[in-house]
Amino acid sequence: MTDVLIGSKCDLAHQWAVNKEQGKQFAKGHGLLFLEASARTLQNVDELMVKRVILHYFLAGLHKDCCKDP
């Protein structure tokens, strides 16, 4: 299963220990998706949930049954 690496606190860039590019490279090197999010401002929180559900849907093979004729 593919997981998502979340760069949290994207609203506090001045306090980051790891910058966005480092996060992207780490995720890519480990086969992960990368997305920045902020719980405080809700930035990308909905997008993260939607992407995670879609990813699970396809990796679980559930999409194969959605378009079959009855």
Structure description:
The chain has helices at 20-29, 45-59; strands at 4-7, 33-36. The two termini are 30 Å apart. By secondary structure, the protein is an alpha+beta fold. It contains 2 helices and 2 strands. Helix 1 (20-29) links the parallel strand 1 and strand 2 (33-36). The chain has a two-stranded parallel ribbon. The chain has a single domain (4-65), classed as Rossmann fold (3-Layer(aba) Sandwich), CATH 3.40.50.300. The chain is flat.
Widest sheet: strand order? 1-2
**Oligomer category:** single chain
CATH architecture annotation: 3-Layer(aba) Sandwich
User: Gap between N and C termini, in Å?
Assistant: 30 Å
Overall number of domains: 1
Class from helix and strand fractions: alpha+beta
CATH domain fold name: Rossmann fold
Strand segment tally: 2
What does the average pLDDT come to?
76
Q: Helicity, in percent? A: 25-40%
**Portion in strands:** 5-15%
Tell me, what is the CATH class?
A: Alpha Beta
Low-confidence stretches: none
Shape: flat
Largest sheet: 2 strands, parallel
Helical segment tally? 2
Say which CATH homologous superfamily is assigned: P-loop containing nucleotide triphosphate hydrolases
**Order of helices and strands, N to C?**
EHEH
In terms of topology, how is this protein built?
Elements: E1 4-7, H1 20-29, E2 33-36, H2 45-59
Characterize this entry briefly:
The chain is an alpha+beta fold and 70 residues long.
